[in-house]
Amino acid sequence: xxxxxxxxxxxxxxxxxxLEIGSGMPGMNYKLKDISGNTTTLADVKGNKGTLVIFxxxxxxxxxxxxxxxxxxxxxxxxxxxxxxxxxxxxxxxDGDDSLEKMVKHAKKNDYNFPYAQDPRSQLAxxxxxxxxxxxxxxxxxxxLVYRGAIDDNARDARSVDEPYxxxxxxxLIAGNPIxxxxxxxxxxxxxxx
Length: 194
Prior knowledge:
Layout (H helix, E strand, L loop, with lengths): L31 E3 L4 E2 L1 H4 L4 E7 L4 H17 L4 E7 L11 H10 L6 E3 L4 H6 L3 E2 L1 E6 L4 E5 L15 H11 L13 E2 L4
Parallel strand pairs: 3-4, 4-5
Antiparallel strand pairs: 1-2, 1-5, 3-7, 6-9, 7-8
């Protein structure tokens, strides 16, 4: 009996390598579906001192633990010239828990004070190399990445944070100082790519 070998292909979605510190902001004009009913881009939300891009979603336990800090960071730093946007790239769940309708309810319930938008086909997340929710990217006023990673070192309790990575980076950016810790480890749920 003659053996026949049949090649088998395994197809997986592979995102690009994570954006390196010093890289330019990708996809600035990529159109995102905003919960306002309009489309927006990263260029639209850009601040005159910098831009904070938060890859997020509605249901990840890590997001739920940290999202109150999204709001306090936006409260503190938007008036100081930092543009803020949360981007939901869970395209694999846009027909369910991460639908635009549920995003509207989620943002209202959690007092979001910044744009919250869907990333069609998870293209923006792929361009950034983002893999988690939350996954944080801070750019300077020249659209150069200066910080990426987590918000701080304690998702469970904002009062027990020892190192507020993101707030420190924003303060240093606004002051015109080098970012002392430009990278921390993003911790969260995996982005649900299509």
